[in-house]
């Protein structure tokens, strides 16, 4: 079982122009991640174009699965079930 | 598989503007936790365990009563240090469904999660949700459901292709 100190933080920014996702990694430094998140939100203002989220988990691989819409879209399992 | 997120600021601001009397500490889902589990049985097992051990103030079972758009999951609201945290428990397939909706909402139909967007896309997700629920719970597939899913796949693929073209 993962302890709270082991949780890693990732700032994920999805830009629909160009359908591009960027990820900043902060390791276990939540304070640095929180500051970067607040700054990114502030720079973005109240505009809805970019999706900015602070996600935390044991690894980026977990985030890529639990929030796959920011990365690869449909899961392999779903594609397989739908026959392609 | 467990991940947590902070809700994006514009969504919080929007909610406060729409419901000005709402206190920030009463707003669930400022922080959120999502756990993705192998199947429906595991979801209910974890939900029961959390109800015993955490301060759960509300449970929404969208797995047995899906939302109109086909969304399925079990949501629990947990009170932790005076704040309300939404815990989403999903099966792998429910999570795949929700992420697929997110992707199409972002790329094709921004209002898809709120009942807007092309009708064939909305129908597709309702039918796909039923199909995946049958897989998750090991239930037999009805021919009519399979035919509907099959018939909707091509129009949805066409929509996605049309969007991908420059």
- Please, how many helices of chain A? 3
> In order across it, which strands form the biggest sheet of chain A?
2-1-3
Count all strands of chain A and give the number. Answer: 3
> What kind of sheet is the major sheet of chain A?
3 strands, antiparallel
Main beta-sheet strand count, sense and barrel state of chain B: 5 strands, mixed
Strand order of the largest sheet of chain B: 1-2-5-4-3
| Overall 3D shape of chain A | flat
Return the average pLDDT of chain A rounded to an integer: 83
- Tell me the distance between the termini of chain A: 36 Å
Helices and strands of chain B, in order, run as: EHEHEEEHHH
Could you give the count of β-strands of chain B? 5
Our measurement of the CA-to-CA distance between the termini of chain B, rounded to an integer number of angstroms, reads 36 Å
Count of discrete alpha- or pi-helical segments spanning 4 or more residues of chain B: 5
Unreliable spans of chain B are: none
Query: Could you say which overall geometry of chain B the principal axes of the C-alpha atoms support?
Result: globular
Query: In sequence order, what are the helices and strands of chain A, one letter per element?
Result: EEHEHH
Radius of gyration of chain B: 18 Å
Please give the most extensive interface between any two protein chains, plus how many residues each contributes: A-B, 32 and 30 residues
Name the beta content range of chain A.
Answer: 25-35%
